[in-house]
């Protein structure tokens, strides 16, 4: 009877250990740290900032033209027409800026995803989650991913 009890406890212990091992096949990354640590992120942000600055200057010049026209006593219809023309001229630049931002973000996300997959495969993990959605557990791959990205 004692042997049967010991065998049952051993089976339960082994089942518990194997179950715990399955939980450790999950990795986590701090997505914000990865973005900040990735060298290409700062380059992309600098490129985007230059374009935003150019757009901002053009927008401010447009606003000054409107203010000057208003001070010069232009009629309401003329002011509305000027405003509409300026908006039409700036709209394509604004859209281009938004598109560029989206493209840069997608490119960075793609590279990060590729690095996450590579690191997860190296350490033998099946699943990697954002650290913010995991309360406890999981192997933190953040630094390994940043290192992989910046090779």
From TrEMBL:
GO terms for biological process: protein stabilization. Residues 1-20 form the signal peptide. Transmembrane segments: none annotated. SUPFAM superfamilies: OmpH-like. This is Molecular chaperone Skp. Keywords: Signal. InterPro entries: Chaperone_Skp, Skp_dom_sf. SMART domains: OmpH. Belongs to the Skp family. Residues 60-79 are annotated as: Disordered. GO terms for molecular function: unfolded protein binding. PANTHER family: CHAPERONE PROTEIN SKP.
